[in-house]
Amino acid sequence: DSGVTQTPKHLITATGQRVTLRCSPRSGDLSVYWYQQSLDQGLQFLIQYYNGEERAKGNILERFSAQQFPDLHSELNLSSLELGDSALYFCASSFTGTSGGDNEQFFGPGTRLTVL
Amino acid sequence: AQSVAQPEDQVNVAEGNPLTVKCTYSVSGNPYLFWYVQYPNRGLQFLLKYITGDNLVKGSYGFEAEFNKSQTSFHLKKPSALVSDSALYFCAVRDYGGATNKLIFGTGTLLAVQP
């Protein structure tokens, strides 16, 4: 158990809908990262938050957004869902998010999103 | 831009034999390299990392990795494979630029250990 929790584990929804994925980082970790894993794109970085502020953006669509709350949990919002958004979404956390950090990231179990 | 490559989609090895999962990297600057393992329907688990120091890094579950600067490689190894080692293995490099340490992952190598 990594200490990172994600809810829900599975999500089935229809095209055009909006969903929210939730992540709670390990106790003491200030950084939260979101990754998307799909068969065609592999494991791709979406976005990072550090202590409530956006730190870096990757291949995140404009239909997707995220935030980190004062208690450090994070939510990833996916809207106007398309079939191609079906994937496994991982959250990870680490103590530091600065470019000088060498801390490994700890991953949650993921949320499997299926868009029908 | 930082990148890692895992040239093998799948590695097959018999139980008890040594295993190697290959990874090469391309970075500007000093590389921070990681290995993660993903079991079916599970998240990624951290195995080991190379930041600096000894070229041979020891990690969890008896795995180790050898950092080779001249060959820009960071291969994952284990002296004696177990059936329970069968999983998807990812090599990753920490990205540079800006105030982030996001990871860039390879495409993954499926390790199949036959009894």
Number of strands of chain A: 11
Q: What is the helix content of chain B? A: under 10%
- Characterize the quaternary organization of these chains: heterodimer
Termini gap of chain B: 41 Å
- Rg of chain B computed from alpha carbons, rounded to a whole number of angstroms: 14 Å
Instruction: Return Rg of chain A in Å.
Output: 13 Å
Largest sheet of chain B: 6 strands, mixed
Indicate the overall shape of chain A.
globular
The succession of helices and strands of chain A, N to C, reads EEEEEEEEEEE
**Average pLDDT reading of chain B:** 92
Give the largest interface: A-B, 31 and 25 residues
Helix and strand string of chain B, N-terminal first? Answer: EEEEEEEEEEEE
Largest sheet of chain A: 7 strands, mixed
**Structural class given helices, strands, pairing of chain B?**
mainly beta
The outline of chain B comes out as globular
Share of helix of chain A, binned: under 10%
Q: Specify the structural class of chain A.
A: mainly beta
Quick rundown:
The complex is a heterodimer of chains A (116) and B (115). Chain A has 116 residues and is mainly β.
Describe this structure in words.
The complex is a heterodimer of chains A (116) and B (115). The termini of chain A are far apart. In chain A, the strands form 2 sheets. In chain A, strands 2, 4, 5, 6, 9, 10 and 11 form a 7-stranded mixed sheet that branches. In chain A, strands 1-3-8-7 form a 4-stranded antiparallel sheet, with no helix packed on it. In chain A, 41% of the residues are buried. The mean pLDDT of chain A is 92. Helix content of chain A is 0%, strand content 52%. Chain A has strands at 5-7, 10-13, 19-24, 31-38, 42-50, 53-57, 64-68, 74-78, 87-94, 106-107, 111-115. Chain B is an all-beta fold. Chain B contains no helices and 12 strands. Chain B has strands spanning 3-5, 10-14, 19-21, 24-26, 33-38, 44-50, 56-58, 64-68, 73-78, 87-94, 103-105, 109-114. In chain B, a hairpin with a 5-residue loop joins strand 7 and strand 8. Chain B starts with a strand and ends with a strand. The A-B interface holds A 2, 4, 31, 33, 35, 42-45, 48, 50, 55-56, 58, 90, 92, 94, 96-99, 101-110 and B 32, 34, 36, 42-46, 49, 51, 90, 94-105, 107-108.
